[in-house]
Design goal:
Layout (H helix, E strand, L loop, with lengths): L12 H17 L4 E6 H8 L9 E7 L1 H15 L6 E2 L16 E5 L2 E5 L2 H10 L1
Parallel strand pairs: 1-5, 2-3
Antiparallel strand pairs: 1-2, 4-5
Helix pairs in contact: 1-3
């Protein structure tokens, strides 16, 4: 993006929203409702309107796991993204306690995405 401070391949807020819309559309076609909890840089970007953008979406897929992975792969092929643009690699650092303050950052009939609360983001940073 011209004038963007983000490096090539970074997923800014608008791009993330577009990808989540496409993910919701793919899930609707599959007639699946999914819930995803996002963490790390993407949670800060979406929930706290941070300007800098991550290169991937760190997530925990709570409902619709296989359908989400299939849709992520389809979207990756469509846009030339790595198939890991949404992945669960960072979930090892997620606190074990439920995140009662996780804000909803995307809501559609087939996809709800919540972002890690500030408390959980700090706990994950300290754990890493």
């Amino acid at each position: 993006m011209p004038g963007s401070r983000n490096p090539p391949g970074a997923l800014d807020r608008d791009t993330l929203h577009q990808l989540f819309e496409e993910l919701a559309d793919e899930l609707a076609r599959a007639r699946v409702r999914a819930c995803i909890y996002i963490i790390g840089g993407v949670a800060m970007t979406m929930a706290y309107q941070r300007d800098r953008a991550p290169h991937e979406v760190g997530a925990r897929i709570d409902d619709g796991h296989q359908a989400v992975l299939t849709a992520v792969s389809t979207i990756a092929r469509r846009h030339g993204l790595p198939t890991t643009w949404l992945n669960e690699q960072a979930t090892a650092y997620r606190p074990s306690a439920p995140d009662q303050r996780a804000p909803v950052v995307f809501d559609s009939p087939h996809l709800i995405i919540t972002g890690a609360s500030a408390e959980h983001l700090l706990a994950m940073k300290l754990e890493a």
